[in-house]
Write a structure and sequence with these properties.
The chain is mainly α. Helices cover 72% and strands 0% of the residues. The protein has helices spanning 2-16, 20-44, 51-59, 61-95, 103-119, 122-151, 168-181, 198-228, 233-240, 244-252, 255-289, 308-328, 332-365, 371-394, 396-400, 405-408, 412-431, 433-437. It contains 18 helices and no strands. The protein starts with a helix and ends in a 37-residue tail after the last helix. The longest helix has 35 residues, at 61-95.
């Protein structure tokens, strides 16, 4: 919901126009290709199978340390930025019914709720996310069906998918926003230790996520272009922006559905906060185990088997940043949400691109019959992700909608995290060989651990997931 309400109007308004439909289709294909290599790696690296581990496997431990710090920066920034957006939009929705509450209160409630759920086991978070997701899907499907019922086949104009002259304005912005909408799909491997059979469930979850999200975004963007009209799509989006989908829903469905959409936008942001909070917590858990961060972060809760300490750190950090922004009087949307969400998106795309390259290198070194298909698909994904990262870097100021030098300089943090982390990894190799040797690159490898690890249907959950003391991964 938050991707459709936020990204779709901007993509149409900033030059994507009807070409956005083709951009979503192309993005889905690229990410499905990336997922082929990602799924193959998730069957090989069991346990702490995060993207930085894949980078370690292909490009070495120093590069992996840089990727790990980039991941922490990206997911933490996204969780905090979403907290600001949640406070801002929830305050606006309540104001429409005469209840005026400062955005900081709603942001604080959102942070407290995600902190509480993150402290507990992932099952509780998953159940709540499932309920919210079903509600969001239902209201968007109602909108889609209402447009189709009113306009018939005109709601799916063939010209929106017809090939034509490709320019940056016509396709580039559409691709940029399409890739942004998928950010975070790769986090399935973070839950490897909490899955009964990660060698099967993680690849399945990844392909389902990309496939269903791609279909969902493709159909809704196509129907939205048809609802407005091909010739008026860009100009209408420019005049309506954030109100575009609300207006179309009121027109084709009913004002009541539009009001439900506004409420579910808030719950969508809350669900996104929870997902990113959980992802950031599990990265901290992994880095704590590897002793790249304090070892206390690498311990699981003895009863909930959750990264409770890492989750608590995430909660305190988010509360501190949100409170600081409120104290300085900065705008929660223009200054906080936009800047941090853009920074995190750039970081996540960069992380995905590094991982895609690493996957190609990893399987190139272990060439075997049939593996060429994995390398080819991963290479296609790598090229697409590198292009998307370049698009985002080149248009960062446009994405944030501000000329602020401070916000414009935030992408430098991505370079600082990668280069600083890689430098630290090289230092560890020279000065702390024991710690360097225990990094997660040496995690159990399914292809090297015998038939059981290769996927025999048995649980691969390590002892640490059952609440036993944890240390660096063997």
């Amino acid at each position: 919901m938050s991707s459709i309400m936020g990204n779709l109007p901007l993509a149409l308004a900033m030059g994507g126009g009807p070409e956005l439909v083709g951009a979503v289709a192309l993005t889905t294909v690229v990410l499905l290709c990336f997922s082929v290599g990602y799924a193959a790696m998730s069957r090989t690296v069991v346990g702490t199978g995060t993207l930085h581990v894949y980078v370690m496997r292909g490009l070495g431990r120093p590069a992996g340390v840089g990727a790990a710090l980039l991941a922490v920066l990206s997911y933490t920034s996204l969780a905090i930025g979403l907290a600001g957006a949640f406070g801002y939009f929830t305050s606006l929705v309540f104001a429409t019914v005469g209840v005026h509450v400062h955005w900081l209160l709603f942001a604080g409630l959102g942070i407290a709720l995600t902190g509480l759920l993150g402290y507990r086991s992932v099952d509780l978070s998953a159940n709540i996310l499932a309920v919210l997701l079903v509600a969001e899907l239902l209201v968007v499907v109602i909108y889609d069906v209402a447009v189709l019922a009113d306009r018939g086949l005109e709601a799916l104009p063939a010209a929106a998918l017809a090939p034509g002259p490709v320019t940056f304005d016509s396709l580039g912005f559409g691709l940029m926003f399409a890739f942004i909408s998928f950010a975070g799909f790769e986090s399935a491997a973070l839950y490897g230790e909490e899955a009964t059979d990660p060698t099967r469930s993680i690849p399945r979850a990844t392909f389902l996520a990309v496939g269903l999200m791609g279909l969902f975004y493709l159909v809704t963007s196509w129907i939205t272009v048809g609802a407005i009209g091909l010739d008026e799509a860009e100009s209408t989006a420019q005049s309506e922006l954030g109100n575009l989908l609300f207006g179309l829903t009121s027109r084709y469905a009913s004002p009541l559905v539009s009001q439900a959409m506004a409420l579910l936008l808030c719950t969508s942001l809350l669900a996104s906060m929870l997902a990113m909070h959980n992802a950031a917590s599990r990265y901290l858990l992994t880095l704590g185990r590897d002793r790249l961060l304090p070892a206390a972060l690498g311990r699981l809760h003895p009863r909930h088997y959750s990264p409770a300490a890492a989750s608590s750190v995430q909660t305190v950090l988010a509360a501190a940043v949100i409170t600081s922004f409120a104290a300085t009087g900065l705008d929660p949307y223009l200054n906080l949400a936009t800047s941090l969400i853009a920074l995190s998106t750039l970081g996540i795309l960069t992380l995905q691109a590094f991982a895609a390259v690493a996957i190609v290198v990893h399987f190139q070194r272990r060439s075997a019959r049939g593996r060429w298909r994995i390398r080819l698909a991963a290479a296609i994904g790598a090229v697409g992700l590198l292009y998307a990262t370049a698009l985002l870097c080149a248009n960062y100021r446009t994405l944030t909608g501000t000329d602020s030098r401070v916000i414009g300089a935030l992408p430098a943090l991505v370079g600082v995290a990668v280069i600083g982390g890689a430098g630290y990894g090289l230092w560890l190799r020279s000065h702390r060989a024991d710690l360097y040797a225990g990094l997660s690159e040496a995690a159990p490898c399914a292809s090297e651990a015998g038939p059981s690890a290769a996927g025999d249907g048995q649980s691969h959950r390590p002892p640490s997931a059952k609440g036993l003391p944890t240390g660096p991964t063997p």
